[in-house]
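Risk mitigation, structural track. In case the binding assays with S-adenosylmethionine fail to produce interpretable data, a predicted complex structure has been prepared as a fallback.
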Amino acid sequence: MTQEPDSSVQMPRENAQLVVVGTGYRAVGDLTIEAKASLEQADKVLCLIGDPLVTQHIQHLNPTVETLDGHYAPGKPRQVSYEEMVQHILAEVRRDQFVCVALYGHPGVFAYAGHEAIRRAQLDGIPARMVPASSAEDWLFADLGIDPATHGCQSFEATDFLLHHRVFDPTSLLILWQVGVIGMFDRVPDFDARPGAAVLAELLTMHYPDDHPVTAYEASPYVAAPPRVTTVPLAKLPDTPMSAATTLVVPPLPERPMDRDVLARLTGRA
Ligand SMILES: C[S@@+](CC[C@H](N)C(=O)[O-])C[C@H]1O[C@@H](n2cnc3c(N)ncnc32)[C@H](O)[C@@H]1O
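Fallback model:
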């Protein structure tokens, strides 16, 4: 949904500014120096974090912090919650103050509210920008020892991947986000991941063998606790416990042979 500038609000906005920062995954440790400075200097902080430790830390940096969690409710369509969050953020910015919004992970990765609030603030002529942070994918590369350059890397939202028949290359790494909430359009506590995982497994087995290993991955927020890494044969995916925080890794099939003609053209050695 797109919206035009709010012409009903005519007050001067000399101080209005919006900075959307990420808090990464490691509780507190992923906060960059720039994000921390924005949180400390803001007139108002809004956050959507999940981890109470991080929210508590932000409260320590800036006592104005208020959480956006209240916009979620069981059975409420996610898009309605996101729109309310954007409206909430803009209402604070339009009070002519410096607002910092903290979102977990990278604030621009699978995070509609941050991008949209920045877009609408900029339409209003208000300075607005994003400060990046570690996403789940960044932690996944580190924890699982995967370099996305080796075979290339494809990254999709799992429901979107199924609904739109996204075209992918099985000889390249495949990462599927939100794999534990496939088909969950409204917020459903205790969502059953199995039906969605069964549909996904059915599609993937058209491209990979049944025993192809796939990994359900969850980064750990704490240095002392390891990530949750569960590797199973593809056929067993529907029986694998997954949550809203699970990302699925499908390793590549063996490389297809190199195209010698292209190689010759690239090297000039025919
Ligand atoms: C709404 S997206 C948020 C992504 C986040 N902004 C980021 O930069 O990583 C939620 C999805 O991120 C991934 N995710 C969230 N927490 C995770 C964790 N602890 N470990 C691995 N993936 C996670 C899962 O795919 C989850 O369904």
